[in-house]
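Input structure tokens:
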């Protein structure tokens, strides 16, 4: 096995123009979150992505006994405590409608003392359609402005058209077709992916969760929230935690997110388990106000890449605005 490619901070560096666009985007995030109670018709300020919470659960991450020696320093405990949020990617909380099958499985990892180790926001689609930071920021800004009625749908469509060419890769088309065939499947039956790259000390990795023995047809006639609640009334959930390491940038690119990594075998590092009694109170204020900012992780688990770098400021400004708004609204579900 070759030596992994080492992390370099140049992978994360933004240009001056990209930094200017990021400042514009941050302002649009503030505007969206401030308007989000009326956008989603709820009594609290929401996130500006993955706004809808299906459920929050407690779980454990059990480390594989025989992980490779070079990985052992990062997983030196037998198990870690988890808080997991199941969500939908839409920026608006839709009620009474069928949700698009774009799901989130965000994981907060803590040690036995309750100290935060890492946040990993995972999704059920392994790729990201945009490699250009400028294109992404312009699209994200137009989405925010569309929902607060400051921009027209024409402006948003113009930004979407700019994204379409980057979806014409074999990897993207293959995974889009796969998602379409599974669009009605149970949320817990999907694989979940980090999409972007994360540090593993001086190395770099992608993460995949692979559920074990989950019926894809479970709760077929129920909405997603009810199907999750019914599942955890009687069943436990287990998923393998797999990683890929970056060995060379040609086969495992850091800043090209619309293609799958190749020639990097999956390494099993453990399993996630959620017991049937693991769901938390979905109406509790503290569960809705949870943050899964991956930049709050220990330095050796930080995100890598230019698109990932945008998350740092975006998560911070979104969370700060949510806290301010929900304090003003005296949110206490």
């Amino acid at each position: 096995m070759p030596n992994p490619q080492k992390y370099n901070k140049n992978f994360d560096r933004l240009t001056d123009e990209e930094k200017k666009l990021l400042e514009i985007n941050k302002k649009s995030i503030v505007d969206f979150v401030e308007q989000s109670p009326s956008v989603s018709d709820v009594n609290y300020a929401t996130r500006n992505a993955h706004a809808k919470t299906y459920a929050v659960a407690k779980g454990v991450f059990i480390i594989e006994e025989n992980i490779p020696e070079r990985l052992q320093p990062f997983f030196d405990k037998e198990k870690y405590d988890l808080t997991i949020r199941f969500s939908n990617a839409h920026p608006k909380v839709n009620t009474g409608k069928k949700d698009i099958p774009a799901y989130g499985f965000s994981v907060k990892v803590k040690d036995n003392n309750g100290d935060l180790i890492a946040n990993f926001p995972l999704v059920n689609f392994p790729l990201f359609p945009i490699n250009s930071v400028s294109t992404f920021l312009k699209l994200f800004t137009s989405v925010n402005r569309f929902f607060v009625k400051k921009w027209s749908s024409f402006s948003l469509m113009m930004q979407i058209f700019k994204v379409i060419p980057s979806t014409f890769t074999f990897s993207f088309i293959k995974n889009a077709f796969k998602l379409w065939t599974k669009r009605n499947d149970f949320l817990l039956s999907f694989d979940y992916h980090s999409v972007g790259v994360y540090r593993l000390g001086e190395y770099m990795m992608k993460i995949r969760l692979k559920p074990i023995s989950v019926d894809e047809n479970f709760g077929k006639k129920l909405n997603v929230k009810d199907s999750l609640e019914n599942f955890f009334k009687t069943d436990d959930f287990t998923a393998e935690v797999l990683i890929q390491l970056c060995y060379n940038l040609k086969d495992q690119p850091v800043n090209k997110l619309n293609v799958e990594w190749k020639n990097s075998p999956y390494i099993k590092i453990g399993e996630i388990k959620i017991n049937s009694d693991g769901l938390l109170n979905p109406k509790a204020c503290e569960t809705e106000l949870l943050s899964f900012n991956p930049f709050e992780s220990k330095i050796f688990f930080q995100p890598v890449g230019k698109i990932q770098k945008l998350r740092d400021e975006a998560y911070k400004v979104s969370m700060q605005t949510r806290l301010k708004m929900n304090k003003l609204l005296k949110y206490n579900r």
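Strands lie at 52-63, 79-88, 103-110, 116-123, 192-193, 197-200, 203-211, 237-245, 267-274, 303-304. The chain has a mean pLDDT of 92.
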